[in-house]
TrEMBL record:
InterPro entries: Peptidase_M28, QC/QCL. It is an enzyme of class 2 (transferase). GO terms for molecular function: glutaminyl-peptide cyclotransferase activity; zinc ion binding. The keyword Transmembrane helix does not apply. Belongs to the glutaminyl-peptide cyclotransferase family. Keywords: Acyltransferase, Signal, Transferase. Residues 1-22 form the signal peptide. Its EC number is 2.3.2.5. It catalyses: N-terminal L-glutaminyl-[peptide] = N-terminal 5-oxo-L-prolyl-[peptide] + NH4(+). The keyword Signal applies. Residues 124-181 form the Peptidase M28 domain. Pfam families: Peptidase_M28 (PF04389). This is glutaminyl-peptide cyclotransferase.
Amino acid sequence: MEIGNLSGVAMLLILALSSTNGNPETSATSVGNLTRSKSARQAESYYEKYEGLAVASNDLGKFKDLLSPILKRRVSGTPAHAAVRQHVSKTLTDYGFTVWHHEFKDRVPVVDLVIRGQELSFTNIVATYHLDNTNGPKRKKLILACHYDSLYAHALSSFVGATDSAVPCAILLDIARVLAPLLSKVENLIFKRASGGRCNRRVARHPREMENDTLGVGADA
Protein backbone atom coordinates (compact mmCIF):
# COMPACT_ATOMS: atom_id res chain seq x y z
CA MET A 1 0.00 0.00 0.00
CA GLU A 2 2.88 2.37 0.69
CA ILE A 3 4.33 1.82 -2.76
CA GLY A 4 0.96 2.47 -4.35
CA ASN A 5 0.54 5.75 -2.46
CA LEU A 6 4.04 6.96 -3.26
CA SER A 7 3.49 6.23 -6.93
CA GLY A 8 0.22 8.14 -6.86
CA VAL A 9 1.79 11.17 -5.19
CA ALA A 10 4.69 11.21 -7.63
CA MET A 11 2.39 11.06 -10.61
CA LEU A 12 0.20 13.86 -9.28
CA LEU A 13 3.28 15.99 -8.65
CA ILE A 14 4.63 15.46 -12.14
CA LEU A 15 1.30 16.22 -13.80
CA ALA A 16 0.79 19.33 -11.70
CA LEU A 17 4.26 20.66 -12.44
CA SER A 18 3.87 20.08 -16.15
CA SER A 19 0.76 22.27 -16.21
CA THR A 20 2.16 25.11 -14.05
CA ASN A 21 2.90 28.52 -15.55
CA GLY A 22 3.61 32.03 -14.23
CA ASN A 23 5.31 33.00 -10.98
CA PRO A 24 7.52 30.10 -9.73
CA GLU A 25 6.82 30.79 -6.04
CA THR A 26 3.07 31.04 -6.54
CA SER A 27 3.07 28.04 -8.81
CA ALA A 28 5.06 25.95 -6.33
CA THR A 29 2.64 26.82 -3.53
CA SER A 30 -0.37 26.01 -5.68
CA VAL A 31 1.17 22.74 -6.77
CA GLY A 32 1.94 21.78 -3.20
CA ASN A 33 -1.59 22.49 -2.01
CA LEU A 34 -3.12 20.74 -5.00
CA THR A 35 -0.88 17.72 -4.59
CA ARG A 36 -1.54 17.37 -0.88
CA SER A 37 -5.27 17.76 -1.38
CA LYS A 38 -5.52 15.20 -4.17
CA SER A 39 -3.13 12.75 -2.58
CA ALA A 40 -5.01 12.97 0.73
CA ARG A 41 -8.32 12.25 -0.98
CA GLN A 42 -6.73 9.47 -2.97
CA ALA A 43 -5.21 7.88 0.12
CA GLU A 44 -8.50 8.06 2.00
CA SER A 45 -10.37 6.47 -0.89
CA TYR A 46 -7.69 3.83 -1.30
CA TYR A 47 -7.75 2.72 2.32
CA GLU A 48 -11.54 2.71 2.47
CA LYS A 49 -11.69 0.36 -0.51
CA TYR A 50 -8.70 -1.91 -0.04
CA GLU A 51 -7.39 -1.88 3.52
CA GLY A 52 -10.01 -4.36 4.69
CA LEU A 53 -9.28 -6.61 1.72
CA ALA A 54 -5.54 -6.55 2.45
CA VAL A 55 -6.10 -7.39 6.11
CA ALA A 56 -8.49 -10.22 5.26
CA SER A 57 -6.07 -11.75 2.75
CA ASN A 58 -3.23 -11.77 5.29
CA ASP A 59 -4.72 -14.32 7.68
CA LEU A 60 -2.18 -17.16 7.86
CA GLY A 61 -4.27 -19.12 10.34
CA LYS A 62 -7.24 -19.33 8.01
CA PHE A 63 -4.97 -20.21 5.10
CA LYS A 64 -3.49 -23.12 7.08
CA ASP A 65 -7.00 -24.31 7.92
CA LEU A 66 -7.78 -24.44 4.20
CA LEU A 67 -4.48 -26.13 3.35
CA SER A 68 -4.34 -28.78 6.09
CA PRO A 69 -7.08 -31.11 4.71
CA ILE A 70 -5.43 -31.01 1.26
CA LEU A 71 -1.86 -31.65 2.39
CA LYS A 72 -1.93 -35.43 2.10
CA ARG A 73 -1.32 -38.11 -0.49
CA ARG A 74 -4.40 -37.77 -2.73
CA VAL A 75 -4.09 -40.00 -5.78
CA SER A 76 -7.16 -39.92 -8.02
CA GLY A 77 -9.66 -42.62 -7.17
CA THR A 78 -8.52 -43.07 -3.55
CA PRO A 79 -10.52 -42.25 -0.39
CA ALA A 80 -8.04 -39.45 0.42
CA HIS A 81 -8.70 -37.87 -2.95
CA ALA A 82 -12.45 -38.09 -2.35
CA ALA A 83 -11.99 -36.42 1.06
CA VAL A 84 -10.08 -33.54 -0.53
CA ARG A 85 -12.81 -33.17 -3.15
CA GLN A 86 -15.42 -32.97 -0.38
CA HIS A 87 -13.35 -30.36 1.50
CA VAL A 88 -12.91 -28.17 -1.58
CA SER A 89 -16.55 -28.48 -2.63
CA LYS A 90 -17.96 -27.77 0.84
CA THR A 91 -15.64 -24.81 1.37
CA LEU A 92 -16.65 -23.16 -1.90
CA THR A 93 -20.33 -23.89 -1.24
CA ASP A 94 -20.02 -22.25 2.18
CA TYR A 95 -18.54 -19.17 0.47
CA GLY A 96 -21.62 -18.84 -1.73
CA PHE A 97 -20.40 -20.53 -4.90
CA THR A 98 -22.50 -22.93 -6.95
CA VAL A 99 -20.49 -26.16 -7.10
CA TRP A 100 -20.90 -29.06 -9.49
CA HIS A 101 -18.75 -32.06 -10.39
CA HIS A 102 -17.70 -32.96 -13.91
CA GLU A 103 -16.97 -36.71 -13.96
CA PHE A 104 -15.16 -38.59 -16.70
CA LYS A 105 -13.00 -41.66 -17.29
CA ASP A 106 -9.59 -41.93 -18.91
CA ARG A 107 -6.87 -44.50 -19.35
CA VAL A 108 -3.71 -43.91 -17.33
CA PRO A 109 -0.13 -44.87 -18.28
CA VAL A 110 1.56 -47.99 -16.96
CA VAL A 111 3.52 -47.22 -13.77
CA ASP A 112 3.67 -50.45 -11.76
CA LEU A 113 1.52 -53.44 -10.83
CA VAL A 114 -1.08 -51.15 -9.21
CA ILE A 115 -1.32 -48.47 -11.90
CA ARG A 116 -1.02 -50.69 -14.93
CA GLY A 117 -2.65 -48.68 -17.70
CA GLN A 118 -6.27 -49.27 -16.68
CA GLU A 119 -9.18 -46.88 -17.06
CA LEU A 120 -9.82 -44.74 -13.97
CA SER A 121 -12.54 -42.32 -12.93
CA PHE A 122 -11.77 -38.62 -12.47
CA THR A 123 -13.79 -35.70 -11.15
CA ASN A 124 -13.32 -32.01 -11.89
CA ILE A 125 -14.74 -29.47 -9.46
CA VAL A 126 -16.33 -26.39 -11.00
CA ALA A 127 -17.46 -23.55 -8.73
CA THR A 128 -19.20 -20.48 -10.12
CA TYR A 129 -20.30 -17.35 -8.34
CA HIS A 130 -23.53 -15.98 -9.80
CA LEU A 131 -24.36 -12.30 -9.66
CA ASP A 132 -27.85 -11.11 -8.80
CA ASN A 133 -28.20 -8.72 -11.75
CA THR A 134 -28.42 -11.42 -14.41
CA ASN A 135 -30.41 -9.11 -16.69
CA GLY A 136 -27.60 -6.57 -16.88
CA PRO A 137 -24.87 -6.29 -19.52
CA LYS A 138 -22.78 -9.35 -20.31
CA ARG A 139 -19.90 -9.57 -17.87
CA LYS A 140 -16.37 -10.84 -18.28
CA LYS A 141 -15.37 -14.00 -16.42
CA LEU A 142 -12.18 -14.67 -14.52
CA ILE A 143 -11.19 -18.34 -14.44
CA LEU A 144 -8.63 -19.70 -11.98
CA ALA A 145 -7.56 -23.33 -12.22
CA CYS A 146 -5.33 -25.93 -10.62
CA HIS A 147 -5.38 -29.71 -10.16
CA TYR A 148 -6.12 -31.16 -6.74
CA ASP A 149 -4.75 -34.69 -7.03
CA SER A 150 -1.18 -35.71 -6.24
CA LEU A 151 1.31 -37.54 -8.43
CA TYR A 152 1.40 -41.32 -8.24
CA ALA A 153 5.06 -42.31 -8.16
CA HIS A 154 4.73 -45.89 -6.87
CA ALA A 155 2.63 -47.89 -4.43
CA LEU A 156 4.74 -47.03 -1.36
CA SER A 157 5.35 -43.37 -2.21
CA SER A 158 4.58 -40.75 0.44
CA PHE A 159 4.62 -37.86 -2.04
CA VAL A 160 1.94 -35.33 -1.06
CA GLY A 161 2.57 -32.65 -3.68
CA ALA A 162 2.72 -29.61 -1.40
CA THR A 163 3.57 -27.21 -4.23
CA ASP A 164 2.03 -29.47 -6.89
CA SER A 165 -0.70 -28.69 -6.15
CA ALA A 166 -1.93 -28.56 -2.54
CA VAL A 167 -0.80 -24.99 -1.87
CA PRO A 168 -2.22 -23.65 -5.17
CA CYS A 169 -5.56 -25.24 -4.26
CA ALA A 170 -5.46 -23.58 -0.85
CA ILE A 171 -4.56 -20.27 -2.48
CA LEU A 172 -7.62 -20.49 -4.73
CA LEU A 173 -9.80 -21.30 -1.73
CA ASP A 174 -8.31 -18.38 0.16
CA ILE A 175 -8.97 -16.07 -2.79
CA ALA A 176 -12.58 -17.26 -2.76
CA ARG A 177 -12.78 -16.62 1.00
CA VAL A 178 -11.50 -13.05 0.68
CA LEU A 179 -13.45 -12.11 -2.43
CA ALA A 180 -16.76 -13.77 -1.59
CA PRO A 181 -18.16 -10.71 0.25
CA LEU A 182 -17.17 -8.47 -2.68
CA LEU A 183 -18.13 -10.61 -5.65
CA SER A 184 -21.57 -9.07 -5.98
CA LYS A 185 -19.78 -5.85 -7.00
CA VAL A 186 -17.36 -7.31 -9.55
CA GLU A 187 -17.26 -9.71 -12.51
CA ASN A 188 -18.34 -13.33 -12.43
CA LEU A 189 -15.66 -15.57 -10.97
CA ILE A 190 -15.25 -19.22 -11.90
CA PHE A 191 -12.98 -21.66 -10.10
CA LYS A 192 -11.96 -24.83 -11.87
CA ARG A 193 -10.01 -27.64 -10.26
CA ALA A 194 -8.98 -30.37 -12.62
CA SER A 195 -8.72 -33.95 -11.44
CA GLY A 196 -5.78 -35.66 -13.04
CA GLY A 197 -4.48 -32.36 -14.36
CA ARG A 198 -6.71 -32.26 -17.43
CA CYS A 199 -10.22 -31.84 -18.77
CA ASN A 200 -11.83 -34.20 -21.20
CA ARG A 201 -12.81 -33.34 -24.76
CA ARG A 202 -16.29 -32.25 -23.79
CA VAL A 203 -14.92 -29.48 -21.60
CA ALA A 204 -12.21 -28.50 -24.04
CA ARG A 205 -14.30 -28.50 -27.22
CA HIS A 206 -17.84 -27.76 -26.05
CA PRO A 207 -17.69 -25.26 -23.16
CA ARG A 208 -21.12 -23.82 -23.95
CA GLU A 209 -22.75 -27.18 -23.34
CA MET A 210 -21.60 -27.12 -19.75
CA GLU A 211 -23.87 -26.10 -16.89
CA ASN A 212 -24.43 -22.35 -16.45
CA ASP A 213 -22.77 -21.68 -19.82
CA THR A 214 -19.37 -21.44 -18.17
CA LEU A 215 -15.99 -22.09 -19.71
CA GLY A 216 -14.08 -25.05 -18.32
CA VAL A 217 -10.29 -24.90 -18.12
CA GLY A 218 -7.95 -27.59 -16.82
CA ALA A 219 -4.31 -27.22 -15.77
CA ASP A 220 -1.72 -29.61 -17.18
CA ALA A 221 0.05 -31.68 -14.52
